[in-house]
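Lab meeting minutes (informal)
Scribe: AK
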Amino acid sequence: MDFTFVSGNLGLDLAGTIGHRRSERIDLLATPADLARWTVAAGLLDTPPAVSDDDLHLAITLREAIYRLASAARTGGPFEAADREVLNRAAEHPPATVRLGEAENLERAGDLRAALSSAARAAVELLGGPQAALIRECEAAPCTRLYIDASHRRTRRWCDMRGCGNRAKAAAFRARAQRQG
């Protein structure tokens, strides 16, 4: 399974590196190398940073705190103090640096903690702002990805139309065809 970035927020995309949370969990950050690849795929860094097992544990702790906080925001529940502390501690670190390169291109640099800080800051801005009310969970079974519903009527049902939405619509079509046939 490849990384996907369809949540509308980098913090939610980090939380989305666990697939199918309530069934057969798929962990896309199983190794330090996976986490290093994610930082580049997420556009946080241009080159993969050094990542230790301790760094991976830190990232997973942050990922799970973001997921629980976003889930609480979605359901109207309270934020747990321990999760808020994990998020705030990660956001305190200086974020990845960006600069305009000589080839008129965007360059991103930093270590793993800088990359995690950037993701944590995105989550802080989401959870502390008005878009927190727009957090939804994908309705496609067994997907559990959280996303921001920025659709015009706020009726988006799936995390991604090309994946979950397409599968759900195809299944509904097959069910209708079977009933008629």
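Next up, CB showed the second protein from the same session:
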Amino acid sequence: MTDRNATTQWTGDLKGGSGTVTLDSSNAGQFPVTWASRAEEPDGRTSPEELIAAAHSACYSMQLSGLLTAAGTPPERIDTSAEVAFGPSGDGFAITGIALTVRAKVPGIAPDVFDRTAQKAKEICPVSAALTGTTITLDAALD
């Protein structure tokens, strides 16, 4: 089992405060966060939702690559974007949905087989599983 770690230091109140997310496991850097970067304009700062989008797009791409390779049709390229919608919901704010868009170059695969494999990757991707209860859509196509 492998654990990954990140920490956040936050200073101040929600609307006027700010923080820094540090990717501890990889030592890949620090990222500034604010409420405004979350609910308004990023202005050079990230948000929890953008970090979820990054994790989801990477995880999905790896899951799809693994499934395609296991089936004997390894991909040449997979481009995945994840759009995480965040907004008012109930008594506060919530992630209201995630849209995955994937375009891939996979020599020798039939479009219907690619579609089924892409859907399966969405269903079993560990980040998708962690986000159970969130509506996740998929737009997948071959280049």
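CB comment: The two ends are 36 Å apart (CA to CA).
No objections, moving on.
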